[in-house]
């Protein structure tokens, strides 16, 4: 008996589906793609491939009966899946509400306000901090919450940006109306290079309101270039300087504006002062980086119900008991028996307990003062030699510290701020470092940390300066340079 035209059509459709199922397998697709799939995608593609093969086989052998069978089973399956989907949606809505409820019950830790928090809850307060600026401008100035970008040699660099208020580019420079994206390359040689952290960069202020911008406005005889980078301490700034020198650029003078980041990293980490990373986590990037990180989190792990259930499980193996890192000597990273080498993860867990926002005992604070004085004196001696070798002048400025500003408006409670661990730590360390700077009386090393006394509320957050204080700092720098 010959094959009817209808049966022939079913067989052709079956063959096409089988071939498609065999070709669309995860192994072949991964080979064509040039990379492997996650387990979730691999399983989904494999199931789809098997379904195509099964459907093709059914069409080839069962013909019309197969269609009837599939239609009946599909109706049953669709009803079951619809009910499962409705249940899944309800469970995830409930879980999302429980997660938010748990978040609201978290105790308030910080003794100071963040500007983003105040902008959301007390917009009038932030309008007073930014007089003359629109709410839109304030929102953009506060938007820079994740400024870091990768750099192949330095630990990281400033994120390259083009916006109304934040503009960075060539060699990590933050531009202003004098040093622009178009002319930076032609102005870099012979200019005054200004290094520092986020206060020098100008967190929370526009391009033309930074310290460097005011230096350009007040002293038209020179060009000042802003090389500030969030979180950089003085050694990181020197590394950036060395990179620029190796590239063949030549400064006329170099200025460092430092203080708070140096203090924070010396509290946080327990390494030799000159081996202090820009961020505590940077000390462990050889073991934990983009090449060694776990595969990306699957869709199922991101569901509210999964996140809620996992919140009851401690998957970290962290029992809250950490080894005690020494407070009177730094870790010898060249000792194979040091915890840093034997168990980097435990060393990191111990390191992050040393936050400047936590209480530090008096012995630990004395040790931080010692580390800072070693840090500054060693870097100064190195800069003396480097400046002679490359024929440039340099100056170091010890900056105003907003935590100690008498009327900083970002403390939650002015009456009790003196009990906050951050204030206690900074209030112990800063006066002693300033005293040592005065004893040294080093040429070109200036303490301008009292500049904010004439403007005690000139801050856009707890630590970053507003335009008026940036101008006062620029004036203090120019005054010191005249006497140098």
Relevant terms:
484 residues, mainly alpha, Rossmann fold, 5-stranded parallel β-sheet, 19 helices, 49% helix, elongated
Residue stretches low in confidence (pLDDT < 50, at least 5 long) are none
Shape-level CATH architecture of the domain at 123-286 and 327-483: 3-Layer(aba) Sandwich
| Topology order in helix (H) and strand (E) letters | HHHHHHHEEHEHHEHEHHHHHHEHEH
Largest β-sheet summary:
5 strands, parallel
Distance between the termini: 109 Å
Shape annotation: elongated
CATH fold name of the domain at 123-286 and 327-483:
Rossmann fold
Structure notes:
It is a single chain. By secondary structure, the chain is mainly alpha-helical. It has a domain at 123-286 and 327-483: SGNH hydrolase (Rossmann fold), CATH 3.40.50.1110. Helices cover 49% and strands 6% of the residues. It contains 19 helices and seven strands. It has helices spanning 5-23, 26-33, 39-61, 64-104, 115-121, 123-129, 135-141, 184-187, 198-201, 211-218, 234-246, 260-268, 299-302, 304-310, 339-342, 344-351, 362-390, 421-440, 467-483, and strands at residues 148-149, 157-158, 192-196, 224-226, 253-258, 393-398, 445-447. The strands form two sheets. Strands 4-3-5-6-7 form a five-stranded parallel beta sheet, with helices on both faces. A two-stranded antiparallel sheet has the order 1-2. Helix 1 (5-23) runs antiparallel to helix 3, helix 5 (115-121) packs across helix 6 and helix 10 packs across helix 19. The radius of gyration is 31 Å and the shape is elongated. The model has no long low-confidence stretch (mean pLDDT 85).
